[in-house]
Write a structure and sequence with these properties.
Layout lengths: L3 E3 L7 E5 L4 H13 L1 E7 L5 H12 L3 E5 L2 E7 L11 E2 L4 H12 L4 E5 L10 H10 L2 E4 H4 L1 E7 L7 E3 L5 H11 L5 E5 L7 H8 L4 E4 L2 E5 L8 E3 L4 H13 L4 E8 L6 H9 L2 E10 L2 E9 L7 E2 L11 H8 L5 E4 L12 H11 L3 E5 L2 E5 L8 E3 L4 H11 L6 E4 L11 H9 L4
Parallel strand pairs: 2-15, 3-14, 6-7, 10-11, 18-19, 22-23
Antiparallel strand pairs: 1-23, 3-5, 4-5, 7-9, 8-9, 11-13, 12-13, 15-17, 16-17, 19-21, 20-21
The chain binds shikimate-3-phosphate and phosphoenolpyruvate (PEP).
Phosphoenolpyruvate binds next to helix 3.
Length: 432
């Protein structure tokens, strides 16, 4: 287990970095490439542990995938090119791999076993196993298919009209992927709009997708065509640097090539509401996904309320938003965010317990947290609990805390941002 010691910065952050590729888009590019006919060439791929788990699972199903840094070539052979794996499919720490892959497996006429790490074993899978069973897949697993390990035998499935209780892109994508292999039409309705990378990328791979507000449909029996995919930088990774730029005194930094798909930019809305001093520049469109650069400066921020439809648009950014809120004037209230409890950790508990250790005035609520700002954070021993986003959020908090902090189990950060500390070092001017 690796730990990291950090102290309060003596000077501001300066310069510019390009955050690594978007995790959600990288997973989808590999998966869609694997089920498509012909070659898919991916540039800007995130070589983080989660996306490497996706590659390894599809290799076990007989797909040739070559990966070198951020370049990946996937030699898809169509839906029927996937073979029954002779080994267990290990998703590691990745919820996205688990749920999207189950949708693909649901329509494949073979048996497979899906397993992940300790954290995956705690995450609810019935939100996907239930609809997939209704579509016709045979699924078994711990607590009747609620948790991994899961075994699935796919085959002939039927379209479904599924009304999801949660705004979850993983649930939506899973059902749509099963629907593409099913008889008839499949529709997913969600309570608020979750990220729409699946819809966008399926269209780019030649699939017809019908969208109407919070409802998405596909007809079964559609094939995907391999293509080139350029993956923009991950706004969820950029969020840590945007927050660092805003809270570390005397900072001005540029973050280039950030994906700004409107279903992901809740953090930008919050930065506006909190009064963060930033500019969004060079907005452009790359492969059907909008991209921009950000310049952010040390800011005087106010507390705000974050709730409702905004939550799915920033769900992974809440740990770092809590750190920003601890430095704002006034109170920040985060509501409607129960989903935080079923991420890599219970992120309400882990954020609140670790920021409390640093002296923040923060309390957990049943669906979020309340943070009273203007705190002088103190260095402390902080645990990531094996959750990449907690490790990074606490590392940024440590940059403004009095005294030394030690972050435990920072290896977890490799899940989504393997070059995180290199980038912090670059911005603080301590790169070798
Ligand atoms: O579809 C995706 O790529 C993701 C969807 C979100 O999860 P949910 O679908 O569980 O909300 C998000 O938290 C996760 O990091 C990635
Ligand atoms: C929740 C996350 O990912 P996943 O669900 O893919 O494990 C995350 O990256 O914060």
């Amino acid at each position: 287990m690796s730990n990291k010691s950090l102290t309060c910065l003596q000077k501001g952050l300066k310069g510019s970095v390009q955050v690594p590729g978007d995790k959600s888009i990288s997973h989808r590019a590999v998966m869609f490439g694997a089920i498509a006919e012909g070659k898919t060439e991916i540039t800007g791929f995130l070589p983080g542990a989660d996306c490497l788990s996706t590659i390894a699972c599809f290799q076990k199903m007989g797909i040739d995938i070559l990966q070198k840094g951020d370049k990946v070539t996937v030699y898809g052979k169509g839906w029927s090119g996937l073979n029954e794996p002779s080994e267990i499919l290990d998703v590691g720490n990745s919820g996205t791999t688990t749920r999207l892959m189950l949708g693909i497996l649901a329509g494949r006429p073979f048996h497979s076993v899906v397993i992940g790490d300790e954290s995956i074993a705690r995450r609810p899978m019935s939100r996907v196993t239930e609809p997939l069973r209704q579509m016709g897949a045979e699924i078994d697993g711990r607590e009747d298919g609620t948790y991994t390990p899961l075994s699935i035998r796919g085959g002939e499935t039927k379209g479904i009209h599924w009304v999801s209780k949660v705004a979850s892109a993983q649930v939506k994508s899973c059902i749509l992927l099963a629907g593409l292999q099913s008889e008839g039409k499949t529709t997913v309705e969600e309570p608020s709009l979750s990220r729409d990378h699946t819809e966008r990328m399926l269209e780019a791979f030649g699939v017809e997708v019908t969208r109407d507000n919070m409802t998405v449909s596909v007809e079964g029996g559609q094939a995907l065509k391999g293509r080139s995919v350029f993956v923009p930088g991950d706004i969820s990774s950029a969020a840590f640097l945007l927050a660092a730029g805003a809270i570390v005194p005397d900072s001005e930094i540029t973050i280039e090539n950030v994906g700004v798909n409107p279903t992901r930019t809740g953090i930008v809305d919050v930065m506006k509401k909190m009064g963060v001093s930033f500019k969004e520049k060079n907005k452009r469109d790359v492969n059907g996904e909008p991209v921009a650069d950000f310049v952010v400066k040390t800011s005087n921020m106010q507390g705000t309320t974050i709730e409702g439809d905004l939550i799915p648009r920033l769900i992974d950014e809440i740990p770092i938003i809590a750190v920003m809120a601890s430095q704002a004037v006034g109170t920040t209230v985060i509501k409607d965010a129960e989903e935080l409890k079923v991420k890599e950790t219970n992120r309400i508990d882990t954020v609140v317990s670790q920021l409390k250790k640093m002296g923040a005035d923060i309390e957990a609520t049943p669906d979020g947290m309340i943070i009273r700002g203007s705190a002088q954070l103190q260095g402390a021993e902080l645990d990531s609990f094996g959750d990449h986003r907690i490790g990074m959020a606490m590392s940024i908090a440590a940059l403004i805390a009095k005294g030394e902090s030690t972050i435990l189990d920072t290896e977890a950060i490799n899940v989504s941002y393997p070059t995180f500390y290199e980038h912090i070092d670059k911005l603080r001017g301590t790169e070798n």
